[in-house]
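Honest question from a wet-lab person: if I give you the sequences of every part of a complex, can you actually get the arrangement of the whole thing, not just the pieces? Trying it with mine:
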Amino acid sequence: MKAVGARLPRYDGVAHVTGRTTYVDDVRIRGILWTKALRSPHHHAAITRLDASKAEALPGVHAVVTHEDVPKNVYGHLEALGIPADEPLLAENDVRYKGQPIAVVAAGDEDTAREAVELIEIEYEERPAFFDIRKALDPDWPQIHQWGPVYPHFGPHNHRRVRKGNVDRAFDEADVIVEGVYRPQAIEHCPLEPQTALAVPEADGRLTIYSCTQAMYFSMGVVAAHLEWPLNKLKFVGGTVGGGFGGKVDTATETICALLALKSKQPVKWRWTREEEFLASSTRAPWHMEIADALTNDGWILGRRMLTLHDSGAYARFSPYGVTKHAFHHTGAYTIPNVHFDGYVVFTNRVPTTAMRGFGVTSVSFAVETQMNRIAEVLDLDPLQIRLKNANRIGDTTANRITLKDPSTVPVVLAAADRIGYDLPAEYRSMTSDRRSGELLPEHLVAQLGVEETSGNGGGR
Amino acid sequence: MKLTVNGVEHDVQAPQLASLLHVLREELDLTSPKAGCQQGGCGTCTVLVDGEPRRSCLLPLAAVEGAAITTVEGLGAADELSPMQAAFDEHYAAQCGFCTSGFLLAGTALLNGSPGATREEVLEALSGHVCRCTGYVKIVRAVEAALHGEVHPERVEASFEPEETEVLIPGSPA
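Yes, you can. This is the full assembly:
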């Protein structure tokens, strides 16, 4: 252990304080072209006409790219898992969120590129836009996404399910039922470095792409898929990210730069404006979570029913993955033997949502911990004691049937109590993560100890 | 037009209304000022104009004729960091580094103009600079360390003797 506890200099510290760190925008290539995009002014509309010929004819414009120029325009982030593609790189017949890119222009300077975008002739037929995920399953919810109101590819289901134990019996036997609804909203990652890429055509026919991505090989795969190229024709340069927080996992600029560079045969940069960041870059998702807990008067959680609606925005991207992670954490750091969880990925006319710092889990942690406090309030019990009592212990099984070998709930709660000078009775203060016994092995938890199963969450990918 | 940057006089070709940021980055290849928002809102493009911190994205070239411009490239080099640079490095005040140039120059102007600045004056001097990795506490600490002369110009070297650390989690193997 040479690093833990030691004071180490940042490997990039001196570069940062001397202004020498090379972010994508700082890469110096002579004669680059600059990119501007035509983006949808509507939340939801059909595109009835698109003609970019005047933009192409503007002096100083070197390339205009629309959906027609993209070898494989429609792509899905989960295609490798067998999920069909759903999102066009550039909008084709319709636009489903405000700010969705439709056409892009590469010109000698930004002003000319902007002027060219103005010259693109486009007509829309506006459609009603929908945002309230609570109404997604109403019969009159309009068709936004070709798959319907919700993502339908959780194995045989149209939602992520977790089932364990006998939740009906838990609710029958409960002394008290406590319900809560939790609705954390969207957050823009807002890194100080906007989305930026630079694609350089090389003499050997390959492309070098300077990228601010947080996920190099993933982004490389996305570009290769759209171009229908083998990976070995792409060289990605990256790893220096001016803040990402999950917002630079989706591939925002690289593919467009690649297409414009190939068409113009010149190096092309696309650096988003701050307005574009707020308008069109993906955000943390809004969530709607409903929890009902079956409780005993002395604070045991016998069962939980939970419904989650996740706002995916206009396309699926990674949302099914986020909801799956969310589902696996829906009992938090606590052991609840009887659960019934349904999580839906709902399509709306907002910008597609994506990862942000604990993808899918931050929302459920907020809901679960607020629910724990609510339970304590209703039962008039101590909130930390309730947490310690129901805390994950060695040998407990989680909702998705993982047997815990090294849970940390008890020591973490005790450390937190210690730090804030919180008074706990001796029997709580002396708790450990050891297997349950005595009073901590109440009847409702007896059956689950020793159970070792690894599957059964009732869904596909 | 003549533009003096980091003590060097340049002939610049850009039109009078081009932003100073654009001229520095695209004509002079000085890339420490960043195009974070280009609306004067984030502070990443800050440079010193005659010693005063200014948003270079909002300054037309014509407005800085005859002025002396300083960017981070004009502070200290890697082996001779200025006190503010050394303090930022030593106190881990840069995470992704994209906002760092602006903070460094705001701090440098404060150090030069009001070396006895109070905590409130430090916060005022840094206000309007956005750090999204949320390093504000470390940035304030670094600026104050530089103001108080508590900076060690030699770089912190890796120490492989673990310091005595407090055990945070009872029963943890640490």
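Two things worth pointing out. Residues 83-147 of chain B form a domain with the DNA polymerase; domain 1 fold (CATH 1.10.150.120). Chain B has a mean pLDDT of 90.
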